[in-house]
Amino acid sequence: MTPEHARISIALFLGWLIPGLGHCVYGRRAKALFYFGLIVFTFAFGLVLGEWRDVNVEKFRLYLLAQIWAGGPALAALLLTRDLRITQDLPFLDAGLLFTAVAGLLNVVVLVDLYEVHRKVKEKLAGAAGAGGTQS
Questions:
Q1: How many CB atoms lie within 10 A of CB 123?
Q2: With helix as H, strand as E and coil as C, how does the chain read?
Q3: What residues contact 85, with CB distance under 8 A and at least 6 apart?
Q4: What region does 86 belong to: left with phi over 0, alpha with psi -120 to 50, or beta?
Q5: d(Cα 59, Cα 101) in Å, to the nearest integer?
Q6: CB 59 within 8 Å of CB 96
Q7: Whole-angstrom Cα distance, residue 15 to residue 70?
Q8: Residue 134 confidence (pLDDT)
Q9: From CA 19, how far away is CA 60, in angstroms rounded?
Q10: Can you give the residue ranges of every domain in the chain?
Q11: What is the mean pLDDT of each successive set of 10 residues along the chain, which is 136 residues long?
Q12: pTM of the entire predicted model
C-alpha cells in the first residue's frame, strides 16, 4: 500500500466515522467543520423528530442502509437506542426517518468530495514533479 493510498483510506474512514474529519486530514478545516455541523445537526434533528426510535435494525432496515453512512452518529444511535420500542403513534416518525437517512446520504456526498480533493492534490503533485524534472 502506497502512502497516498493509505492517506486517502484513513481519511475516508475518518470521514465516515466522524463526518467532516477526513477533510481535516487534507487541511480543509472550515469545510470539515461545516460538514460536521450540517450532517450531525440533520441526523440529531431526525432523531428528535422520531423520538429517538428511528434508527432500528429490526423495524427500519431499508432506512438503516442510508442512515449507517452517517458513521459515528448512526452507530451511537444504534447502540444507545436499541432497547427503545415504539409503543404509541409517533406523528413525526416518518420525518425523522427521512432526516436521519438524508444525513447519511449527505455524508456519502462529502466522502465523494473528499476523494475528489485527494485526486486533485495527487494530480497537482504529479504535475509539479513533472514540471520540476523538465526544467533546462
A1: 10
A2: CCHHHHHHHHHHHHHHHCCCHHHHHCCCHHHHHHHHHHHHHHHHHHHHHCCCCCCCCCCCHHHHHHHHHHCHHHHHHHHHCCCCCCCCCCCCHHHHHHHHHHHHHHHHHHHHHHHHHHHHHHHHHHHHHHHHHCCC
A3: 53
A4: beta
A5: 14
A6: no
A7: 9
A8: 56
A9: 22
A10: 3-84+91-119
A11: 92 98 96 98 98 95 98 98 94 98 98 96 87 60
A12: 0.91
84 neighbors 53 (Cβ within 8 angstroms):
yes
Check residue 130 and give its pLDDT. 81
The residue type at 6: A
Q: Position of cell 503533485?
A: 125
The cell for 16 is: 465516515
Write the Ramachandran bin of 41: left for phi over 0, alpha for psi from -120 to 50, otherwise beta.
Answer: alpha
